Amino acid sequence: MAQSEWMQDPGWKFLRQSDEEKLQEQATRKFDNKTHTWIPDPEEGFLIAAIAVDETDSLSVTLPNGTQKKYTRDQCQEINPAKFEKTEDMSNLTMLNEASVLHNLRQRYRNMMIYTYSGLFCVFVNPYKMLPIYTDSVAKMYVNRRRSEMPPHLFAVADEAFRNMISEHENQSMLITGESGAGKTENTKKVISYFAMIGAGGQAVGGGGQASEIDTKKKSENSLENQIVQANPAIEAFGNGATVRNYNSSRFGKFIRIHFDKRGKLVGGDIEHYLLEKSRVIKQAPGERSYHIFYQMMTQKKLRDRFSLTDNIRDYNFVSQAEITVPCMDDKEEFKATNTAFDVMGFSDFEKDELYKTCAAIMFMGNMKFKQKPRDEQAEIDGMDAPEKAARLLGVNVDLFIHALCAPKIKVGNEWVTKAQNVQQVDWGVGALSKAIYARVFTWLINRCNETLTGHLEDAAHYIGVLDIAGFEIFNRNSFEQLWINFVNEKLQQFFNHHMFVLEQEEYRREGIEWTFIDFGLDLQACIELIEKPLGIISMLDEECIVPKATDMTYVDKLTNQHLGKHPNFVKAKPPKGKEAHAHFAIVHYAGTVRYNAEQWLDKNKDPLNDSAVACLKAGGNPEALVCKIWSDYMTDVDREAAAARGKTETGGKKKGKSASFMTVSTMYRESLNSLMTMLHTTHPHFIRCIIPNEKKTSGLIEAPLVLNQLTCNGVLEGIRICRKGFPNRMCYDEFRYRYAILAADEANDKDTKVASIKMLDKMLKTQLLIADHFRSGATKVFFRAGVLARLEEARDEAIAKFILYFQAAIRARLALDDYASKIQQIDAAGIIQENVRSWVVVRKWPWFRLYAKLKPLLKGMKSNAEIEALEKRCKEIEAAHKIEEETRKRLEDELRAKKEECADTQAALDRERAAIERRNKEIEELNASLRKEQEKLEEADKKQKDLEKQRERERKEAEEKERKLGAELEQEKNRAQAEAEVYKEKLKTAEEAAQKGERTRKAQEKELTDMANQLEAARQKNDRQENERNKLAEQLEKAENEAIVERKQRDEMQKANKKLEAQLRAMKEQMELMQKDRSNSDVDLKRRDEEISILKSKALSDANLIAKLQSTLRALIARIEELEEDLDAQSRARNRIEKHRNELQAQLDSINEQCTEAKGQLTAQVHLNNTRATEMAELHREIERKSLTHEAYVADLCSMQYLTISQLRNLSQQAATIENEASQLLDIRRAQTLGGALTRDNTVTIYDENGSHL
């Protein structure tokens, strides 16, 4: 799982998509395997077309542009399910085909996810821009992480190699291949930097905290890890050039070995190189440039002045045949980087000057002009300026040098003859000599770098090798160089095939799957044997090089007669198409059929050199000069003749001249290739394949034909072909049951995932969803053949679709029923409303209903006193509850105060524990420091012990040698003395016999005898002295042995002390772990208590706020009740006054009626008076009626006011109940008792007729 801090890294989005983006893309994909298919396209590689008509052997499809076309099924390729979109490992694709691989790479490259796995391969697509995925923060992510845990990356492969080396104690190798411009060199730099950073820590990446070991630190310039990193710029200046595809293309292959000790610490490195492109020194194709060092030198005025170079590089033919500048590359800055790299690598100023001087000499050699002598086949020099400058820089005599070039001496039999050469031959000789000088300078440079990188190789336990070599090449014109590059890649591909399926079949065996072993490396054996075996292409080329008057065409004829029609991999070249050059034959490689042009193959294979010119260079004045050093191992005919004259045999030297057939270029290449393959077979390999996305160097653009060609040449598609033979898709039982349980739900219920998965597979077999040959059940995984998972995905999608359809149908049914019920209720409601309206229309003018409508508010108003009493009772209850809440609040405050005190005590205790832990940590650090010091002392003592043992061994050997010599001398002296004694005895006898001849003769003999006795005594004394010296040496040896015994005892004591310290350290670590555990528990407890305190605080605060709110609300309610009571009293008084006034008016009306009755008799007599009084009476009646109406309206207004007041009281009562409920819920003390029906009122109106029955 990705950690959160990783996802914040700016480089993470270029490594892996988020799950949300992935699901969104999968959901928006508009094609699948049922309705669409891949069809071939010359420009896009493959297009997605919709299937219009599915026939038996063909498909009619609709292209993206709307046109319809018919394709056979073999031309169409299946599409993978959406879950495999932008998959990180293409070997997991259930449809393993070219279209799916290309589509996956294209989609990932559009998002700049440039690394993708394909089984054992890690495929890299050049982004043509800088991405933040090589930073130290990204490198930390991959340290000590399994490859399956992390997104694809070069660092993941590198870290896997490092961990394998440490854990399995096996050498590792990383094979980085690809075409020029694909990014091989840059990846090599990054992986070397990664190893240098890890190895600098001195410990294996085996623990969880090891990620800190690769933190960026400023290293000293002369540190070994920095030298390993800086070796690249130094070598690239001499080995890299500009090509059409790549401005910094490595024109050689290299195998960089980085050595580590048993603990994983970097101890040294070395470099081996292969197949240097020497022809680039003297010839460049259009759009290309020679090696960078020539152009870097021309930016330095000091070098130009010192070597007599001009300002214009166009003045030098060898290096100005095409481009002289490179975009985005500053040669002046590059020279500074090269010079700095030389300084870091420990090159002296003399060595650097010699390198630059030799390069300048090659530039001048390119300007040497020759002309033909009149009427002669002999060439002569045309201008001495360039030869003189070249000879001065090479340190040779110019006249001898020119003579060696124009008229070299060759040995014919036992005689030396001068060979006349024409201009073309001399030009060829100068070019060959220039190439040879540069190649040997490059070899010397590699060896010199190896001297610096040696470090402490005696401590090396294992190494990781990084192979950076050109990939398979198919050009318009393929020559001798392409044959060897393709042959190397053929061998590497065979190595990969063998390794890949060996690992595959080992996993099958580990999982317990029956499988017949297949060696896929044998698939390429026929092509390899065609090239390297006897009577093969290389063997016949070497033979042809020693045949007199042999030509390239005779070689082609022999090849054709030997192999055409007899070997399946040797075919006749097809006629050229477009820009393709003429070819003489073709070879069927694993990556395709390559047409080869055999022109100049014999010359390139022989690589002839002018022995006289080489001898002239070897005879230079300064033996320390670089030119002399690089030719020191070359044996010319003169050297061999001189060695023969001295009676020496030719050993160790490279045979040239007439012995060229035994050391041709092919022979040297074959030896180095065999050495490389032998080395690789002793390592565990890891494969990086680099891809050029387009020829325009444009970021984000994929040219499908170019990428497909490289996938073929790099062996990615070959690896996929091998995967199809076995079971490429595999899933753990847990994952299988989780994903496909919907296809066998009952069987997936078993607790054991393996048993459940096997039951699921059995059911799929019964339902014919699977065939027995399509899968295998292993110990931990289920293995599937290619394409099976796609069918399972389709079945799973169908099952999910059925379930979703059923679910949607149920939801739609529920929604429809709810809608139906709602409409029924609406219909019923309309009928009820209509019925009520009709009833109201009937009774609205009925007097009794009108009377009821007027009296009902008055009836309700009579109950206001009861409501007020209920409110007072409610207020008392609220006050009592408030008192209880106040007491609870005080109690909680006391508890909070106690908790705070307890928390303070806990905090103090925690502080004391932290201080104790800090003291313990300091003690542990001090113990660690002392332990490190003891370890350093122990290591120093071990080193001294080893040095002392070596010295003692050396002294012992010297003493033994000296004793042996002394013994031999003594023996010789003794023998010589005995011989002299015998002689003297003979002389004495003779002298005794001749004593009679004279006294003088006797005295002389006596004197001689005395002298001889003295000499014998001196010899004895000398023997005694030598014996004494021998005894002294024996005493010294014994003393040294005693000292060694004492030191060994001291070493044992130190080891015991070290073990004791380690035990103490372990005990301290255990104590520290216990303290840390207690500390973590205390932290958890403290955090829990803090949370409780914060909850209590917030609760108390909310309680206080609620109580204050309730108090204010209660006061407002009481005030409002008082106001309402006053209003009610005023209304009652007003109603009484109105009632009294009405009674008075009614009394007046009654009295008037009585007066009218009494006056009837009088009115009969007085008509006029009666009319007048009638009129007054009518007016009086109208006035009474008006007053009565006014009085009724006033009474109705009072009743409505009373009703509104009672409604407000009811609302206030409801608010009080709501507040009480909220208070009871927040405090959790008690739930309010349910209010009685006093506060609720039935609003139903019941109408009665005159008889009391319902209307």
Automatic annotation (TrEMBL):
Record-level GO BP terms: actin filament organization; left/right pattern formation
Transmembrane segments: none
PROSITE patterns to which the protein is assigned, alphabetical: MYOSIN_MOTOR (PS51456), SH3_LIKE (PS51844)
A GO term for molecular function: microfilament motor activity
Pfam family, one: Myosin_head
Ranges for region Actin-binding: 673-695
Keyword list, A-Z: Actin-binding, ATP-binding, Coiled coil, Motor protein, Myosin, Nucleotide-binding
Stated name of the protein: Myosin heavy chain
UniProt organism field: Mesorhabditis belari
